[in-house]
């Protein structure tokens, strides 16, 4: 139940950024990674697998773990999540990265196993890369337009 709450909050942060502040879904960080992958395709392994392992060890196991042990969940999660967001150098999306950091911190605190946020982070990075691949991106756009037509039809 709590995991669903944190995931929902992360999705809400993305919606707030997009609809509340007019910030597009595509982050500069993601675009940089994708352009690097165009040049060196095997880097997808680093992005999807190795990056999350290193980031979760640093931000959840070390930073969150030390602060959480000395204070409480909220302070540990906030501190590690803000640092996590800042090192992604994508300040228009700082709210979204901070929410993801909170979600990963919660997963770690709840399970006491670093492999859980590592797995969630790997899945998230893999999905972000997948939906940026042109044929997948086109399919998602077509599905989105179809849904807008269906939903729009109810309110016409």
TrEMBL record:
BP terms from Gene Ontology: CAAX-box protein maturation
Residues annotated as domain CAAX prenyl protease 2/Lysostaphin resistance protein A-like: 41-126
Example GO molecular function: endopeptidase activity
Keyword tags: Membrane, Transmembrane, Transmembrane helix
InterPro entries for the chain: CAAX_protease, Rce1/LyrA-like_dom
Domain of life: Bacteria
One Pfam short name: Rce1-like
TM annotation in the entry: 39-59, 71-88, 114-133
Protein's name according to its UniProt entry: CAAX prenyl protease 2/Lysostaphin resistance protein A-like domain-containing protein
